[in-house]
Amino acid sequence: MARVCLPSMLRTYVDGAKELDVDGATLKQVLDALRERSPGLERRLRDERGALRRYVNFYVDGDECRLLDGQDTAVVAGTEVMIIPSVAGG
Fold it and tell me: Could you tell me the domains of the chain?
């Protein structure tokens, strides 16, 4: 079971939870489980084809998943998944 850490801007989709314990053997399975639990969160994380949104960073035990195996990155018991949307301004 992975521990998913969410920033405040995404907590409204999960009843204010800062962290969630989610089952899955890969990042994709963890995100699929999050979709089942909180459907509104899905469109913030992945596009209509299921691809990770460019402006959202997914860290698996501190490493950006795109530098690993993307959504196929392995997740084991105790893995920490941090989801951090980019912030831009002018």
Answer: 2-85 (3.10.20.30)
